[in-house]
Write a sequence for this structure.
């Protein structure tokens, strides 16, 4: 099971900036096992997929996908379109999609199913809000989100996740995203263990890579990389600048 260090650029970077970053990333990468993900805005998926052609360890991810394959859904982008653009995976259920854009929990399984049908690697995001954490219901919230996204998948897709390892979970406590306030690595490690157990029950033995996300930076990365239960990170702010992103990759190039 590979580790993943994934940049989520959100609505940042022009085409020129994205291409400059891509060139710098190719130059800065050493040999290593961890998969490096780059998630640009939709219009640049194809440009970046082309820029990384032949660089096997870099995967381009979309930041979202529609819950339907085609139809009258203004502003949406389907899994086939993402595949056509050359991307290898997609982030689903990011906290900003759930909370800012009010995505319904019932859409998650549909999105994941369609992405898997196109053989895209799914990074499914889960995590509790500050209010839920204060109420002490964080683990229940995460279990519910996992069940909502994975419980109803077709048996064939569950089997394909097991054989191709195409599902990654990103644990991102909502209160830690973009706030400069990261979760303590020991707590993230405990959450990662619980998620692995939960997913393995839902998917008959499949233990996914679990990434931590939420205010990760070069100063706090060692704390997360030091726990073998944490298989990588999903990074917003610190992924916009190569000087801050490369050390995060290095931290997970562990033996
Ligand atoms: P952040 O974002 O690193 O800026 O907290 C993480 C994310 O949104 O995935």
């Amino acid at each position: 099971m590979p580790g993943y260090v994934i940049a989520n650029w959100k609505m940042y970077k022009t085409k020129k900036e994205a291409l400059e970053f891509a060139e710098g990333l190719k130059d800065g990468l050493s040999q290593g096992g961890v998969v490096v993900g780059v998630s640009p805005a939709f219009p640049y998926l194809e440009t970046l997929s082309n820029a990384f052609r032949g660089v096997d360890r870099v995967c381009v991810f979309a930041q979202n996908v529609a819950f339907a394959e085609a139809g009258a859904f203004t502003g949406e982008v389907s899994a086939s379109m993402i595949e056509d653009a050359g991307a290898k995976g997609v982030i689903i259920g990011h906290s900003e999609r759930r909370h800012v854009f009010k995505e319904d929990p019932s859409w998650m399984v549909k999105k994941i199913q369609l992405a898997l049908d196109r053989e895209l690697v799914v990074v499914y995001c889960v995590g509790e809000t500050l209010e839920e954490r204060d109420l002490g219901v964080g683990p229940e919230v995460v279990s519910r989100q996992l069940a909502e996204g994975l419980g109803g998948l077709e048996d064939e897709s569950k089997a394909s996740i097991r054989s191709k390892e195409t599902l990654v979970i990103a644990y991102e406590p909502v209160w830690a995203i973009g706030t400069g306030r990261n979760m303590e690595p020991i707590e993230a490690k405990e959450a990662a263990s619980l998620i692995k157990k939960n997913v393995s029950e839902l998917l008959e033995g499949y233990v996914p890579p679990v990434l931590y996300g939420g205010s990760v930076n070069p100063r706090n990365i060692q704390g997360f990389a030091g726990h073998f239960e944490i298989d990588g990170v999903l990074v917003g702010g610190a992924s916009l600048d190569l000087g801050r992103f490369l050390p995060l990759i290095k931290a997970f190039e562990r033996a």
Summary: The mean pLDDT is 96. The first strand starts at residue 4 and ends at 8. The pocket of 2-phosphoglycolic acid is lined by residues 8, 172, 177-178, 213-216, 234-238 (CB under 6 Å). The beta strands are 4-8, 35-39, 58-62, 89-92, 121-126, 167-171, 210-213, 232-235.
